[in-house]
Amino acid sequence: MKKKYKLFANGNIYTVNKINPKAEAVVTGNGKIEFAGNLSDAKKRLGFSNYEFIDLRGSTMLPGFIDSHLHLLIGARYLTNINLSEAIDKKSFQRIIREFTDENKFEWYLGGNWNEENFSGGKYPDKSWIDEVIPDVPVFLTKSDLHMGLANAAALRMANISEKTKNPPGGIIERHGETGKPTGILKDNAMRLILDLVPQENDEERKKNILKGMKFLNSFGVTSAHDLAMENYFHNYEELFYENKLSLRINYIPLIESVEKFSRFKISGEKYNHFLKRIALKSFADGSLGSSTAWFFDGYFDERENRGLSSEIFSGGALKKLAVNADNYNINLLIHAIGDRANHEIVNLYEEMNRINGGKERRNRIEHCQHIAESDFIRFAENKIIASMQPYHLAFDGSWCERKIGKERLKNTFPISSLAKRNVKLIFGSDWPVVEPSPLKGIAAAATRKLESSDLSFINKEKISVMQAVEAYTINAAFAEYEEKFKGSIEVGKFADFVILDRDIFHINPDGIKKTHVEAVVLNGKLTTEGNI
User: Fold this and answer.
1) Lower CB count within 10 Å: N or C terminus of the chain?
2) Cis omega (within 30 of 0) on the bond before 433?
3) What are phi and psi of 517, to 5 degrees?
4) Taking the model in full, what pTM does it have?
5) What does the alpha-carbon distance between residue 85 and residue 15 come to, in Å, rounded to a whole number?
6) Are 417 and 458 in contact (CB under 8 A)?
7) Among 332, 348, 353, 441, which residue's Cα sits nearest to residue 390?
8) Average pLDDT per run of 10 along the chain, which is 533 residues long?
């Protein structure tokens, strides 16, 4: 006979519920939490019911992690395309490409995940790095931050990009100083010149990639994700839902340009048992720090005349109109802003939306919030703007930020604690595939501010507690998508979504958190990954 209930006990169960922060036992049934409290009371509640006992054996159980900012399909493609994350110089860059192309024959080669900060001298690669390996087939390889890409000569020819091609609005074609010929590096909106030519995968290939990406995320303890999608493939997720194959709860977030169509197809979680929803739209204010396109009030320290780029949609005036329109439809907004000028302008935009459309509950977000002018911290709080941040980024960017913006501006970089102290709602994510989608490494980074390249801490005053970081990956992230009544904490009536860890992250040195292992993941009451549980 199939067992109706599960009883989880004999471990450290943290509920992320301020009223009842710990439980000895949790009972689940029909995909939801039936009880959380004392073990004796749990057994009384079960009585003679048929249940399965899950012995945690001293492990730690938390609500399932929610990654509030990632790009699922792009990340999934990196799992099967060229992955240059381990490249440290031209030789290793070319070796990885050669090994991949020797084993795979495609009409286009895609992938990337390279970072010039890993190369000696920190200089951008050149199209010759690809051409010397594969000159005749088009190749386009994006940087890890997704705001820059490297095309080979074949791809540039297909896109008709030459020394005569003008920079598109919101984008830059890097050129050789003497000749003006393209180096192969395309920044921000200039990448569209290549990407619009790339053949799209069919529905079945895309669904396979989605499944692969979801399983990969599950392995890090992620049970829900806010998927910031660059194209509209919602129908593929719908098909997988009806095939009962989704292993993540997906908050699907397309671009703001689709606001009119989107307003007719806004979908709350109830329709798909909270496995799929579509209630928000995304846009951009600027580029990235690593690509020197993040928008600042002052020039870059290493490029005094360069203040970065405002996005075409912002500088052209379209974003304001689209944002006000979306707000009329009660659609939440997520706007990417990294530089201090970009963050300032988006706070201004949200304030203006409030004036135009009046006061009402909004859960609008700024994505990244990486550099913020001190005078804008309180404005985040006053306008109830949710700060969507990616703490694991600081473990990498912290080693070279000062070179980009100088020591003085460094103090307000990744200002996590400064925002938290002003009661700004923090939510955390990975921006996968920019970095590994590990909430545990994100929690460790937020609590220690330790760099990956050394044992140094990056701006100690911006540390937060482990519990604050966990809340940003659980209950706060659920709040951001109007799901706090359904997930984000271990409480009666919520979905039985849990992550089980091999150690108690609240009672170890925070340095050890990133070495913690996910033993199992429970989604809707079912084990989706199993280790020692």
Assistant:
1) N
2) yes
3) -110, 145
4) 0.92
5) 36
6) no
7) 441
8) 85 97 97 97 91 96 98 92 93 96 93 89 91 96 92 96 93 91 95 93 94 97 95 92 97 91 78 94 95 95 92 94 93 97 98 90 97 96 97 94 92 97 98 96 98 91 98 98 97 98 97 96 87 58
